[in-house]
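Hey team,

Filing this mostly as a record. A colleague (T.K.) asked me to run one chain through the structure pipeline before their review meeting, and I want the input and output archived in the tracker in case anyone asks later how it was produced. No errors, nothing strange. Just documentation.

Input sequence:
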Amino acid sequence: MILKLIANTRSTSLKQRVNGLLNYIQNPENTRANHLSNYIRQPFASQQAWDEGALIEKCVYANARNFLDDAPEQQKIEMLQTASLNGRVEDPIVHLVASFKKFEVPTIQQIEEQIDILLRHLNAEALQVQYAMHLDTDNAHYHVVINKIHPIEKNQHQQHKCVNLGDGWILNALHRSAAEIEAKQGWSSEPNPMFIYNRRTQTVESNPAYMKISDAEKLPAPILDRAYRHQQPSTLQQDIHFAKSYQQYVESSVQNILHRANSWQDWHQALAEKGLTFEKKRNGAVFQLKTYSEQITFKASLFCQKQVTLPQLQHQWGAYQAAAEDSRPQAVLDQEVRSRISSPSSKSKIHPFHLFQPQDYLVAELHTIYLALKTQKDQITDLHKQAAAEIKQNHEDYQFVERDLQIKQQQQKYPSIALDRIQTALDDQHAAQQQRDRSNRRTRYALSHRQLTEKLLKDELFKDELGQMLFSSPKINSAQITSYADFVSRLDREHPLVIAQQFLLDQRQSGNFIHAPNPACRQAQLIYDEQLKHEPIAVMNQYGIQMFSQYSVPRIQQCLKLLNADTSIEFFGEPSFKQQAKIALQHWDYRIEDPNPCHELPRLSQISPSDLEVFFDQLYQHFNQTHNLQTAIFKANLLLSCCQVNTDRLERNLKEYSDEFFNFNLPAPDRNNLMLRLKSVLCTQPLAQNRQYFNAQDLDCVWQVALKLEYNLLKRKTARIINKPKPEGGSKLVIEEIAFPPRDPDFLNEVMQELSFQRHKSRLQQQFLEVAEISLSSNLLGASQRIEIEVKPLLHFPADRYQIICQFEHQFYIDRELNQTAFIENKALAYIHVVSQQEVHVCDALFLAHAQYGTVLISGNEQFKTQVEAIAQQYQIPVIREEHVEQRQAQPKVPAQPSAVQVAGHDRQTNLPQPDLTPPVEPQQRHEPATQKTSNRPDFGF
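Output structure:
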């Protein structure tokens, strides 16, 4: 979350500020009405036409503290009167905003807890506070208005005390509050936080890994805002970036020379070879860097921790001696200087947010068109300003010069008319002329913008299909486009380039990062998927590759192929990403094929209520492992909406799930806010964009549920609460379970309506059954002890023989010639299941296990053990039987958990698994009151 202090830039009066702020947070204007209405008329097929008024609802919750009256209007008067009790304070009103990420929606209880934490850090617990939550923008947020004047306590001047918020360090107090709120409520933190919350001591501490921005790199807010609006760095930003590269070049050169120089002449000569000079300047010294384009001067105290200042060097080599005439510096290439920018140390926590620039996330085709539009628009604006300046100048000329001359002329021409009548007539005539000039200026301005689209259509840059599509829309009005994001929002939202750009603007804070020095990549470039040409999956620069949210093993491998095989690689980010990245790195030389290259999802538009309940329950449990309650609910519903489930059905399902089964401690207002935010996302973003927020494991989870329902591997039960009378009188609530009969075995035919997926249906079913049969097998190979999995070269492993597919958290090795699965590997749980009975497949599985885990543990029937031991003896692979493990005193006992590596034998079962054969798994604990009973819902994970 982000906590921001909103400055009073307009310098409004106290009365205007209090009335304006409190009116805004209580009864805000629907600034998003036009934006939503443009798209709400064309929701996707399975959605109904929602109520536009409900979707643009802005203020969904408001409250206040430390007021005598509960009425908002009376509170406004009370705050204004209290703020007036100290005349020494010019602006006692403080305005704060707390904003959350895209899929985060706090509950009312959480907002109240956040206000408690915020006021405690600000020392404002006794002050008058009003706050309100808004849902009108792309992020849920709430406003806080604080009156710094204490309502009771007085100061030494007998005026009401003005509280110094945060003891004068209000920004630090906001950062501390954000750190504690994120830790206690489970929100994802912003990159590079100043403070972290210590759960052991329950205190907020400074972040030792915080990367402070130097004062030289800080820019005024207007420059940063302008660069953000246009997604284009300003000239000042470019100059600072180049100066930083020059300074790093000087630092590295001076540090190397300092270690080997023994005299002033050695010092000057070595500096000249690097294009540098060292000169005395008053009582100090400066370095001068000579390039082919310019000469830049730096203070000597900036480098080597002030070891190269003039007093320090004179202490070593005596009095200063100037450089000899023949030691002139050699000019250095600018490219050589800029290529010396050092990458951050991998020892500290790296976040790609600091290694990439905003312009690295731009779709070049769209941004080029925007800049051309902006250039034309700026020319019109300049002419508009010139016309306004001329009108203003005419008014000033009339007031100070022409008015008196015209009055004298009119008096001479009409001596009988009174002076005041002449003055009034001239003033009215001038005012009318000024009004006509302004009206004509506005008309010319509007006409110029209407003609701009026609002019651009004739331009060479926009004659292609993309330009015609973008500028033929009636929504394009250059007069109303003030930023790149505004420009993109007015284009066709279903266009692949627009979907890609909107998605990229949300991915800047993705923490999934492959840190690998890549000096050859001097300019950042987007990486697009090989199958879906318009879907960006990563961005790469000289520091490494940042992966976006829709990652999978084949896509990670696709990115790794762009790096040098000899480069050291580190993975940062989500546990799921790091796990899949290690799998992709292990198979660096082998291609892993994607079983779902288009990232398709089943169509669940006609799903029954009981099946929808099952899908929602499983997806919620899946997301709840890494997210808090509301985010897990939000993402589960969003993923189901990508499966064409109507949002009204999702809303009804969530209500029934919350009310009847007590699984969520989610009151009705919080549930409504959550669904309101979900509807807003669905109305402003296409499904093709929403689907990109989910990785391959999320999509696999949906298909697992569909396959479980296909084979009736779970007991589909529902429950209802009934009110039964008690024998002694009164009534009691009873939960009654209703079991549904097994469904017809045609569920996949219903959800697989796409022809492209019909071809993959048999493979999907086969892989699902093979994974389900692993727990039923008794022949196992494993590691003799628990070891850390390391990436080792796979000796004797024929890469061309197998097609490798990652599905259902397993890796399937499929023989290309036979078109059948040979063996299955699970990297996370560390086991390999041999499916085939052919000796060559068992041999390759043994090679794979030995390369990864060393000594191999054998278990199963005698035939399988003997076969593996014979292969191991031939290739000198150390193996041990399971029954001999306890006899090995040098090795610890292998745990019974699936942490040991297991390779199952080939005694697979040919019949479909029955529901009673599935091992029961305890359902995940959810947030639920201790006094309420929960329904006994089955879990159907593997």
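Quick notes for T.K.: Residues 235-343 form one domain. The chain has five domains: 2-211, 235-343, 361-489, 508-593, 774-908.
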